[in-house]
Specification:
Layout lengths: L3 E2 L10 H7 L1 H4 L13 H18 L6 E4 L2 H16 L5 E5 L4 H12 L3 E5 L9 H7 L4 E5 L13 H11 L2 E5 L11 H4 L3 E5 L10 E5 L14 H4 L7 H39 L3 E3 L10 E6 L4 H10 L2 E2 L15 H5 L4 H5 L1 E5 L6 H21 L7
Parallel strand pairs: 1-11, 3-4, 3-5, 5-6, 6-7
Antiparallel strand pairs: 2-8, 7-8, 9-10, 10-12
């Protein structure tokens, strides 16, 4: 049985070219880049080369890139860093009601410390209206944090418009770009963001390494205290193999992004059109076109997402019921509820996230399996109203 992996939004396989680039920094060039002897010069050079490549990918300078352990740390660093650095100016933060938990949970933590969080709503396609953000800004607003693309439904947000609003109001603006970085063009100047989070394992790099872009002049309190690494902004000995792998993954993404975008968009759109034709009582979640090239999310009436997931798994197909960070939770997705889905439809959703290895033939196989699986499950389901 061929395994078809369709959960690239959760994580991607590390590209063999990335692994090859990393290997020398585990056993040969293993020196600490903070040391001053010559043996550490090669790891330091390799690390700075990766920093330069990543900065170039988003139109930043090398000094504006801080390496972290991944997207969650980068988001925590952005939110808590601004909150602690600017609390004397105000304690009001704006975000949306569909953010990843790596933004939502820090917001809850900051609320417990006396900060006030305003949650901007989205429409039925998961889109934020920039005017709603503008109306929510107050004299004491210190930060706006809006994700560039939603990890569950794939909807792309009007970040550049929100960036212009934030800049005009003099409010620091952060975007969680974990799902977009390396998959679509991302330029911090076009988007007018002050802070941007990304993670290597979402673009065929290694787990355990990410970055936070910090625009020059942005005030940010350190999240981790200790040594003077990362220009005193993030203590801890740098993960050189991971950083080198991150840089290599970015290099590959730069070279292959345009062709991969076209290929995946075509496969995505074909599947989005085919599923409702073959399966009744199905609802597409997220914007029909303004979405990530690899994201497909459907709700199937009368079924539980977990039962569908397990049925597909037995056929060798890996999909998700939503965010990987909450896959063990029995609660309805906050994203689905935010876009107006009933609890029943929210529980009956599946996310198919495509990747480099996904072929047109794979998705045809998935469609065939999905059609017969849904029909069989609905025959057994007391929730589905049979005509």
């Amino acid at each position: 049985m061929k395994h078809i992996y369709l959960d690239h939004a959760a994580t991607t396989p590390t590209d063999p070219r990335v692994v090859e680039a990393m290997l020398p920094y585990f056993t040969e060039q293993f020196g600490n880049p903070s040391s001053i002897y010559s043996f550490s010069s090669e790891p330091k050079i390799a690390m700075e080369d990766a920093r330069s490549r990543i900065a170039g990918m988003i139109g930043a300078t090398e000094r504006e890139i801080v390496f972290t352990s991944g997207g969650s740390e980068s988001n925590n660093f952005a939110l808590k860093g601004v909150a602690f650095a600017r609390s004397d100016k105000g304690k009001h933060i704006i975000t949306s009601n569909i953010e990843h938990h790596a933004v939502g949970e820090p917001c809850k933590f900051l609320e417990s410390l006396g900060f006030e969080i305003s949650y901007v709503p989205v429409d039925g396609n998961g889109l934020i209206n920039p005017e709603d953000v503008q109306k929510t800004i107050r004299p004491d607003t210190i930060l706006i944090s809006i994700m560039q693309a939603n990890n569950e439904i794939g909807t792309l947000q009007p970040i550049a418009e929100i960036g212009r609003i934030a800049k005009k109001a003099g409010v620091t603006f952060h975007t969680d770009a974990v799902q977009t970085f390396g998959h679509i063009p991302v330029n911090v100047n076009d988007l007018q963001v002050d802070l941007l989070s990304a993670s290597a394992h979402k673009l065929y790099g290694p787990r355990g390494v990410g970055m936070l872009y910090i625009r020059k002049g942005t005030k940010l309190a350190p999240l981790i205290h200790g040594g003077d690494q990362e220009r005193k902004r993030r203590a801890s000995t740098e993960n050189v193999p991971g950083i080198v792998g991150f840089g290599k993954a970015v290099e590959i993404a730069q070279n292959e992004m345009e062709a991969e975008y076209r290929r995946l968009t075509g496969i995505r759109d074909t599947f989005i059109n085919d599923v409702p034709e073959k399966i009744p009582d199905v609802v597409l979640n997220g914007h029909p076109t303004q979405r990530l090239p690899n994201n497909i999310n459907f709700s199937f009436q009368g079924l539980e997402g977990e039962s569908m997931l397990l049925t597909l798994d037995m056929e060798g197909i890996s999909v998700s019921t939503g965010s990987a960070c909450t896959s063990s939770s029995l609660e309805a997705s906050h994203v689905m509820l935010a876009i107006g889905r009933s609890h029943e439809l929210a529980h009956g959703s599946l996310r198919f996230s495509l990747g480099r290895q996904t072929s047109t033939e794979d998705m045809q196989t998935v469609l065939e399996v999905l059609v017969r699986s849904i029909a069989r499950l609905r025959m057994m389901s007391p929730l589905y109203k049979k005509s």
